[in-house]
User: Which sequence fits this backbone?
Protein backbone atom coordinates (compact mmCIF):
# COMPACT_ATOMS: atom_id res chain seq x y z
CA UNK A 1 0.00 0.00 0.00
CA UNK A 2 1.26 3.52 -0.76
CA UNK A 3 3.70 2.49 -3.49
CA UNK A 4 1.81 4.17 -6.26
CA UNK A 5 0.18 7.61 -6.36
CA UNK A 6 -3.02 5.84 -7.36
CA UNK A 7 -3.17 4.20 -3.91
CA UNK A 8 -4.53 7.49 -2.54
CA UNK A 9 -7.92 6.18 -3.56
CA UNK A 10 -7.62 3.20 -1.17
CA UNK A 11 -6.56 5.58 1.61
CA UNK A 12 -9.76 7.53 1.00
CA UNK A 13 -11.95 4.39 0.96
CA UNK A 14 -10.27 3.02 4.11
CA UNK A 15 -10.77 6.30 5.97
CA UNK A 16 -14.39 6.06 4.92
CA UNK A 17 -14.76 2.91 7.04
CA UNK A 18 -14.49 5.14 10.13
CA UNK A 19 -16.93 7.62 8.66
CA UNK A 20 -14.46 10.14 7.22
CA UNK A 21 -14.82 11.49 3.70
CA UNK A 22 -12.49 13.97 1.94
CA UNK A 23 -12.94 17.59 3.07
CA UNK A 24 -12.77 18.78 -0.54
CA UNK A 25 -14.09 17.29 -3.80
CA UNK A 26 -11.90 14.74 -5.60
CA UNK A 27 -13.19 15.96 -8.98
CA UNK A 28 -10.92 18.99 -9.20
CA UNK A 29 -13.13 20.73 -11.76
CA UNK A 30 -15.60 21.35 -8.91
CA UNK A 31 -13.22 23.50 -6.83
CA UNK A 32 -13.92 26.74 -8.68
CA UNK A 33 -17.64 26.67 -7.93
CA UNK A 34 -17.00 25.88 -4.27
CA UNK A 35 -14.54 28.76 -4.00
CA UNK A 36 -17.10 31.09 -5.64
CA UNK A 37 -19.53 30.14 -2.85
CA UNK A 38 -17.09 30.58 0.02
CA UNK A 39 -14.88 33.57 -0.86
CA UNK A 40 -15.61 37.23 -1.52
CA UNK A 41 -16.36 38.26 -5.11
CA UNK A 42 -13.23 40.44 -5.38
CA UNK A 43 -10.63 37.71 -4.73
CA UNK A 44 -12.62 35.01 -6.56
CA UNK A 45 -13.09 37.26 -9.58
CA UNK A 46 -9.38 38.00 -9.62
CA UNK A 47 -8.45 34.31 -9.69
CA UNK A 48 -11.23 32.83 -11.82
CA UNK A 49 -11.56 35.75 -14.23
CA UNK A 50 -9.96 36.07 -17.62
CA UNK A 51 -9.36 38.66 -20.28
CA UNK A 52 -12.34 40.11 -22.15
CA UNK A 53 -15.47 37.98 -22.04
CA UNK A 54 -13.54 34.93 -20.79
CA UNK A 55 -13.49 33.16 -24.15
CA UNK A 56 -9.81 32.19 -23.86
CA UNK A 57 -10.41 30.57 -20.47
CA UNK A 58 -13.21 28.52 -22.02
CA UNK A 59 -11.15 27.73 -25.14
CA UNK A 60 -8.34 26.34 -22.97
CA UNK A 61 -10.75 23.89 -21.38
CA UNK A 62 -12.49 22.84 -24.57
CA UNK A 63 -9.19 22.28 -26.39
CA UNK A 64 -8.26 19.72 -23.73
CA UNK A 65 -11.73 18.25 -23.44
CA UNK A 66 -11.95 17.80 -27.20
CA UNK A 67 -8.88 15.54 -27.21
CA UNK A 68 -9.84 11.98 -26.30
CA UNK A 69 -7.56 9.23 -25.05
CA UNK A 70 -7.59 5.84 -26.75
CA UNK A 71 -6.65 3.30 -24.04
CA UNK A 72 -4.62 0.19 -24.87
CA UNK A 73 -5.07 -3.18 -23.13
CA UNK A 74 -2.97 -6.11 -21.83
CA UNK A 75 0.29 -4.20 -21.49
CA UNK A 76 1.39 -5.11 -17.93
CA UNK A 77 0.88 -1.86 -16.05
CA UNK A 78 1.49 -3.45 -12.65
CA UNK A 79 4.67 -1.46 -11.84
CA UNK A 80 4.69 2.22 -12.66
CA UNK A 81 7.16 5.10 -12.32
CA UNK A 82 5.94 8.67 -12.82
CA UNK A 83 9.34 10.33 -12.55
CA UNK A 84 10.76 12.50 -15.32
CA UNK A 85 13.86 14.57 -15.88
CA UNK A 86 13.08 18.21 -16.58
CA UNK A 87 15.81 20.82 -17.19
CA UNK A 88 18.34 18.54 -15.56
CA UNK A 89 16.26 18.06 -12.41
CA UNK A 90 14.77 14.73 -11.39
CA UNK A 91 11.07 15.23 -10.67
CA UNK A 92 8.80 12.59 -9.09
CA UNK A 93 6.06 13.40 -11.64
CA UNK A 94 5.66 15.69 -14.68
CA UNK A 95 3.96 18.44 -12.66
CA UNK A 96 5.06 21.75 -11.11
CA UNK A 97 3.02 24.45 -9.37
CA UNK A 98 2.53 27.44 -11.68
CA UNK A 99 3.57 30.89 -10.49
CA UNK A 100 0.52 32.65 -9.10
CA UNK A 101 0.90 36.02 -7.42
CA UNK A 102 -0.92 37.65 -4.48
CA UNK A 103 -1.95 34.40 -2.79
CA UNK A 104 -2.69 36.17 0.51
CA UNK A 105 -6.04 37.23 -1.00
CA UNK A 106 -6.94 33.53 -0.97
CA UNK A 107 -5.70 32.39 2.43
CA UNK A 108 -3.40 33.69 5.19
CA UNK A 109 -0.95 30.83 4.58
CA UNK A 110 -0.50 32.28 1.08
CA UNK A 111 2.64 31.31 -0.91
CA UNK A 112 4.23 29.64 2.11
CA UNK A 113 1.32 27.21 2.40
CA UNK A 114 1.39 26.38 -1.30
CA UNK A 115 5.18 25.98 -1.29
CA UNK A 116 5.10 23.64 1.70
CA UNK A 117 2.44 21.51 0.03
CA UNK A 118 4.54 21.29 -3.15
CA UNK A 119 7.59 20.33 -1.08
CA UNK A 120 5.60 17.63 0.74
CA UNK A 121 4.77 16.04 -2.63
CA UNK A 122 8.29 16.59 -4.04
CA UNK A 123 6.99 18.85 -6.83
CA UNK A 124 8.73 22.11 -7.82
CA UNK A 125 7.10 25.29 -6.59
CA UNK A 126 7.41 28.28 -8.92
CA UNK A 127 7.31 31.47 -6.89
CA UNK A 128 5.87 34.55 -8.58
CA UNK A 129 7.67 37.91 -8.61
CA UNK A 130 4.28 39.26 -7.53
CA UNK A 131 4.02 37.06 -4.43
CA UNK A 132 2.58 38.47 -1.24
CA UNK A 133 5.47 36.90 0.71
CA UNK A 134 9.16 37.82 0.16
CA UNK A 135 11.06 35.13 -1.72
CA UNK A 136 13.53 34.58 1.14
CA UNK A 137 10.69 33.69 3.50
CA UNK A 138 9.20 31.17 1.04
CA UNK A 139 12.64 29.62 0.48
CA UNK A 140 13.13 29.28 4.22
CA UNK A 141 9.79 27.45 4.56
CA UNK A 142 10.80 24.99 1.83
CA UNK A 143 14.12 23.71 3.22
CA UNK A 144 15.96 21.91 0.43
CA UNK A 145 12.89 21.36 -1.74
CA UNK A 146 12.95 22.18 -5.44
CA UNK A 147 11.95 25.77 -6.19
CA UNK A 148 11.97 27.91 -9.33
CA UNK A 149 11.65 31.68 -9.59
CA UNK A 150 9.27 33.44 -11.97
CA UNK A 151 10.46 36.82 -13.16
CA UNK A 152 8.31 39.72 -14.15
CA UNK A 153 10.98 41.50 -16.10
CA UNK A 154 10.99 45.01 -14.64
CA UNK A 155 11.87 48.15 -16.55
CA UNK A 156 14.61 48.86 -14.02
CA UNK A 157 17.75 46.81 -14.73
CA UNK A 158 19.09 47.08 -11.20
CA UNK A 159 15.85 45.79 -9.69
CA UNK A 160 15.89 42.85 -12.13
CA UNK A 161 19.53 42.12 -11.31
CA UNK A 162 18.77 42.31 -7.62
CA UNK A 163 15.81 39.89 -7.95
CA UNK A 164 18.05 37.40 -9.77
CA UNK A 165 20.77 37.69 -7.11
CA UNK A 166 18.27 37.22 -4.30
CA UNK A 167 16.64 34.23 -6.02
CA UNK A 168 20.02 32.60 -6.60
CA UNK A 169 21.09 33.19 -2.99
CA UNK A 170 17.82 31.62 -1.78
CA UNK A 171 18.26 28.39 -3.72
CA UNK A 172 15.88 28.90 -6.65
CA UNK A 173 17.27 26.71 -9.43
CA UNK A 174 15.34 27.56 -12.62
CA UNK A 175 14.38 31.02 -13.89
CA UNK A 176 10.94 31.26 -15.49
CA UNK A 177 10.59 34.53 -17.42
CA UNK A 178 7.00 35.52 -18.12
CA UNK A 179 6.73 37.29 -21.49
CA UNK A 180 2.99 37.66 -21.92
CA UNK A 181 2.45 40.61 -19.59
CA UNK A 182 3.97 43.61 -21.38
CA UNK A 183 0.83 45.27 -19.99
CA UNK A 184 -2.05 44.17 -17.79
CA UNK A 185 -4.94 42.95 -19.94
CA UNK A 186 -8.57 44.15 -20.03
CA UNK A 187 -10.17 42.08 -17.26
CA UNK A 188 -13.83 43.01 -16.79
CA UNK A 189 -14.41 41.01 -13.59
CA UNK A 190 -11.71 43.08 -11.88
CA UNK A 191 -12.60 46.32 -13.67
CA UNK A 192 -16.27 46.13 -12.68
CA UNK A 193 -15.25 46.09 -9.00
CA UNK A 194 -12.17 48.28 -9.49
CA UNK A 195 -10.32 45.42 -7.76
CA UNK A 196 -6.53 45.36 -8.12
CA UNK A 197 -4.66 44.11 -5.02
CA UNK A 198 -1.31 45.66 -6.05
CA UNK A 199 -2.70 49.16 -5.55
CA UNK A 200 -3.17 48.26 -1.89
CA UNK A 201 0.39 47.00 -1.58
CA UNK A 202 -0.62 43.31 -1.83
CA UNK A 203 1.60 41.30 -4.19
CA UNK A 204 4.46 43.79 -3.93
CA UNK A 205 6.46 42.05 -1.16
CA UNK A 206 9.48 41.26 -3.33
CA UNK A 207 9.67 44.85 -4.54
CA UNK A 208 9.11 46.59 -1.22
CA UNK A 209 11.78 44.40 0.41
CA UNK A 210 14.29 44.96 -2.40
CA UNK A 211 17.30 47.24 -1.83
CA UNK A 212 17.48 48.33 -5.50
CA UNK A 213 13.75 49.12 -5.55
CA UNK A 214 13.96 51.02 -2.29
CA UNK A 215 16.92 53.03 -3.56
CA UNK A 216 14.53 54.55 -6.11
CA UNK A 217 12.12 55.89 -3.44
CA UNK A 218 12.31 59.38 -1.92
CA UNK A 219 10.92 58.08 1.42
CA UNK A 220 10.86 54.59 3.00
CA UNK A 221 7.87 52.42 2.00
CA UNK A 222 6.14 52.75 5.40
CA UNK A 223 6.38 56.55 5.33
CA UNK A 224 4.85 56.92 1.87
CA UNK A 225 3.21 53.64 0.78
CA UNK A 226 1.30 55.30 -2.07
CA UNK A 227 4.52 56.56 -3.66
CA UNK A 228 5.98 53.04 -3.32
CA UNK A 229 2.93 51.56 -5.07
CA UNK A 230 3.23 54.08 -7.88
CA UNK A 231 6.95 53.32 -8.26
CA UNK A 232 6.01 49.63 -8.54
CA UNK A 233 3.27 50.32 -11.12
CA UNK A 234 5.74 52.32 -13.22
CA UNK A 235 8.34 49.55 -13.46
CA UNK A 236 6.44 46.26 -13.08
CA UNK A 237 5.92 45.65 -16.83
CA UNK A 238 8.05 46.72 -19.76
CA UNK A 239 6.37 46.78 -23.16
CA UNK A 240 9.66 47.90 -24.74
CA UNK A 241 11.55 44.61 -24.38
CA UNK A 242 12.73 42.66 -27.47
CA UNK A 243 14.54 39.35 -28.11
CA UNK A 244 18.11 40.73 -27.91
CA UNK A 245 17.36 41.86 -24.32
CA UNK A 246 17.43 38.18 -23.27
CA UNK A 247 21.23 38.33 -23.33
CA UNK A 248 21.05 40.31 -20.06
CA UNK A 249 19.22 37.47 -18.33
CA UNK A 250 21.58 34.84 -19.74
CA UNK A 251 24.53 36.85 -18.36
CA UNK A 252 22.96 37.22 -14.94
CA UNK A 253 21.54 33.73 -14.36
CA UNK A 254 23.68 30.58 -14.31
CA UNK A 255 20.93 27.96 -14.27
CA UNK A 256 18.26 27.00 -16.81
CA UNK A 257 16.03 29.77 -18.21
CA UNK A 258 12.52 29.07 -19.45
CA UNK A 259 10.31 31.56 -21.33
CA UNK A 260 6.67 31.45 -20.29
CA UNK A 261 3.83 32.53 -22.55
CA UNK A 262 5.04 31.26 -25.92
CA UNK A 263 2.28 30.36 -28.40
CA UNK A 264 3.91 30.64 -31.85
CA UNK A 265 6.50 28.14 -33.17
CA UNK A 266 8.64 31.01 -34.50
CA UNK A 267 8.84 32.53 -31.00
CA UNK A 268 9.90 29.12 -29.69
CA UNK A 269 12.65 29.02 -32.35
CA UNK A 270 13.76 32.52 -31.32
CA UNK A 271 13.93 31.31 -27.72
CA UNK A 272 16.22 28.46 -28.76
CA UNK A 273 18.37 30.82 -30.86
CA UNK A 274 18.70 33.12 -27.83
CA UNK A 275 20.21 30.29 -25.79
CA UNK A 276 17.18 29.62 -23.64
CA UNK A 277 16.60 26.16 -22.16
CA UNK A 278 12.85 25.84 -22.42
CA UNK A 279 9.46 27.39 -23.06
CA UNK A 280 6.13 27.19 -21.31
CA UNK A 281 3.36 27.01 -23.91
CA UNK A 282 0.77 29.11 -22.10
CA UNK A 283 -1.74 31.91 -22.56
CA UNK A 284 -1.56 32.83 -18.87
CA UNK A 285 -4.75 30.91 -18.15
CA UNK A 286 -6.72 33.06 -20.58
CA UNK A 287 -5.95 36.20 -18.58
CA UNK A 288 -4.03 38.17 -21.18
CA UNK A 289 -5.18 37.99 -24.82
CA UNK A 290 -8.93 37.67 -25.19
CA UNK A 291 -9.57 35.60 -28.29
CA UNK A 292 -6.13 33.94 -28.07
CA UNK A 293 -5.46 30.48 -29.44
CA UNK A 294 -6.06 27.83 -26.79
CA UNK A 295 -2.75 26.78 -25.26
CA UNK A 296 -3.38 23.06 -26.00
CA UNK A 297 -4.01 23.91 -29.65
CA UNK A 298 -0.67 25.75 -29.87
CA UNK A 299 1.27 22.96 -28.14
CA UNK A 300 1.74 20.32 -30.90
CA UNK A 301 3.21 22.80 -33.41
CA UNK A 302 5.64 24.17 -30.85
CA UNK A 303 6.71 20.71 -29.71
CA UNK A 304 7.21 19.83 -33.38
CA UNK A 305 9.30 22.95 -34.01
CA UNK A 306 11.65 22.90 -31.00
CA UNK A 307 11.03 19.69 -29.06
CA UNK A 308 14.55 18.49 -29.88
CA UNK A 309 16.21 21.78 -28.83
CA UNK A 310 14.17 22.98 -25.86
CA UNK A 311 12.27 21.59 -22.90
CA UNK A 312 8.61 22.20 -23.73
CA UNK A 313 6.35 22.76 -20.73
CA UNK A 314 2.64 23.51 -20.79
CA UNK A 315 -0.07 25.26 -18.79
CA UNK A 316 -3.49 26.87 -19.17
CA UNK A 317 -6.50 24.66 -18.60
CA UNK A 318 -5.01 21.70 -16.70
CA UNK A 319 -7.58 20.57 -14.13
CA UNK A 320 -7.39 16.77 -13.93
CA UNK A 321 -5.06 13.80 -14.23
CA UNK A 322 -6.25 13.06 -17.73
CA UNK A 323 -5.45 16.67 -18.74
CA UNK A 324 -1.84 16.01 -17.67
CA UNK A 325 -1.82 12.86 -19.82
CA UNK A 326 -3.25 14.75 -22.82
CA UNK A 327 -0.67 17.55 -22.50
CA UNK A 328 2.13 14.96 -22.57
CA UNK A 329 0.53 13.31 -25.59
CA UNK A 330 0.47 16.70 -27.34
CA UNK A 331 4.22 17.11 -26.79
CA UNK A 332 4.78 18.60 -23.31
CA UNK A 333 7.52 17.25 -21.08
CA UNK A 334 5.65 18.40 -17.96
CA UNK A 335 2.76 20.67 -17.00
CA UNK A 336 2.27 23.57 -14.61
CA UNK A 337 -0.82 23.41 -12.44
CA UNK A 338 -2.46 26.80 -11.85
CA UNK A 339 -5.95 27.64 -10.60
CA UNK A 340 -6.82 24.24 -9.03
CA UNK A 341 -4.12 24.51 -6.36
CA UNK A 342 -5.09 28.14 -5.74
CA UNK A 343 -8.67 27.02 -5.05
CA UNK A 344 -7.32 24.28 -2.78
CA UNK A 345 -5.41 26.95 -0.86
CA UNK A 346 -8.49 29.18 -0.63
CA UNK A 347 -10.62 26.32 0.71
CA UNK A 348 -8.23 24.66 3.16
CA UNK A 349 -4.78 26.30 3.23
CA UNK A 350 -1.73 24.08 2.82
CA UNK A 351 -3.85 20.97 3.45
CA UNK A 352 -6.13 22.00 0.59
CA UNK A 353 -3.20 22.33 -1.80
CA UNK A 354 -1.90 18.91 -0.70
CA UNK A 355 -5.33 17.42 -1.33
CA UNK A 356 -5.37 18.88 -4.85
CA UNK A 357 -1.88 17.61 -5.65
CA UNK A 358 -2.56 14.13 -4.30
CA UNK A 359 -5.81 13.88 -6.27
CA UNK A 360 -4.15 15.10 -9.47
CA UNK A 361 -1.23 12.68 -9.18
CA UNK A 362 -3.46 9.74 -8.25
CA UNK A 363 -5.73 10.42 -11.20
CA UNK A 364 -2.75 10.85 -13.54
CA UNK A 365 -1.20 7.59 -12.32
CA UNK A 366 -4.51 5.80 -12.93
CA UNK A 367 -4.95 7.38 -16.37
CA UNK A 368 -1.48 6.13 -17.32
CA UNK A 369 -2.19 2.62 -16.07
CA UNK A 370 -5.69 2.38 -17.51
CA UNK A 371 -4.44 3.62 -20.88
CA UNK A 372 -1.66 1.04 -21.05
CA UNK A 373 1.40 2.98 -19.86
CA UNK A 374 3.82 2.58 -16.97
CA UNK A 375 5.78 5.81 -17.40
CA UNK A 376 5.13 9.33 -18.78
CA UNK A 377 7.93 8.87 -21.32
CA UNK A 378 5.96 6.52 -23.58
CA UNK A 379 2.88 8.75 -23.93
CA UNK A 380 2.65 10.08 -27.50
CA UNK A 381 0.21 11.57 -30.04
CA UNK A 382 -0.75 7.98 -30.89
CA UNK A 383 -2.61 7.85 -27.54
CA UNK A 384 -5.14 10.40 -28.75
CA UNK A 385 -8.09 9.78 -31.01
CA UNK A 386 -6.89 12.54 -33.35
CA UNK A 387 -3.32 11.31 -33.06
CA UNK A 388 -2.19 12.88 -36.31
CA UNK A 389 -2.76 16.43 -34.92
C1 LIG B 1 -1.55 33.72 -12.68
N1 LIG B 1 -0.48 33.46 -13.54
C2 LIG B 1 0.74 34.07 -13.31
N2 LIG B 1 1.80 33.79 -14.11
C3 LIG B 1 3.01 34.34 -13.87
O1 LIG B 1 3.94 34.08 -14.62
N3 LIG B 1 3.18 35.17 -12.80
C4 LIG B 1 2.16 35.49 -11.95
O2 LIG B 1 2.35 36.21 -10.99
C5 LIG B 1 0.88 34.95 -12.23
N4 LIG B 1 -0.17 35.26 -11.43
C6 LIG B 1 -1.39 34.64 -11.63
C7 LIG B 1 -2.45 34.91 -10.77
C8 LIG B 1 -3.64 34.22 -10.92
C9 LIG B 1 -4.75 34.49 -9.96
C10 LIG B 1 -3.79 33.25 -11.93
C11 LIG B 1 -5.06 32.45 -12.08
C12 LIG B 1 -2.76 33.01 -12.81
C13 LIG B 1 -0.61 32.48 -14.64
C14 LIG B 1 -0.26 31.08 -14.17
O3 LIG B 1 1.12 30.93 -13.95
C15 LIG B 1 -0.66 30.03 -15.24
O4 LIG B 1 -0.13 30.39 -16.48
C16 LIG B 1 -2.18 29.92 -15.34
O5 LIG B 1 -2.77 29.87 -14.06
C17 LIG B 1 -2.57 28.67 -16.13
O6 LIG B 1 -3.95 28.63 -16.37
P1 LIG B 1 -4.95 27.72 -15.50
O7 LIG B 1 -4.59 26.30 -15.76
O8 LIG B 1 -4.77 28.13 -14.08
O9 LIG B 1 -6.32 28.07 -16.00
Assistant:
Amino acid sequence: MGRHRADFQYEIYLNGMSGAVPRLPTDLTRLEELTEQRLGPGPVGYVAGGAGDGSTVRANRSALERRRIVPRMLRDVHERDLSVEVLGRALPAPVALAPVGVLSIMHPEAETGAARAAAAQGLPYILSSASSTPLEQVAEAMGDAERWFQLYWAKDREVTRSFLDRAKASGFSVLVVTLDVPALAWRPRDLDRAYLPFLHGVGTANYFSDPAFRAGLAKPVHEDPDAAVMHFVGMFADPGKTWPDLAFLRENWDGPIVLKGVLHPDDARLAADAGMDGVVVSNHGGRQVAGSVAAADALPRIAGAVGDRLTVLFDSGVRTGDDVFKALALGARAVLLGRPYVYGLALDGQAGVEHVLRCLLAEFDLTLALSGHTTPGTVSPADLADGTD
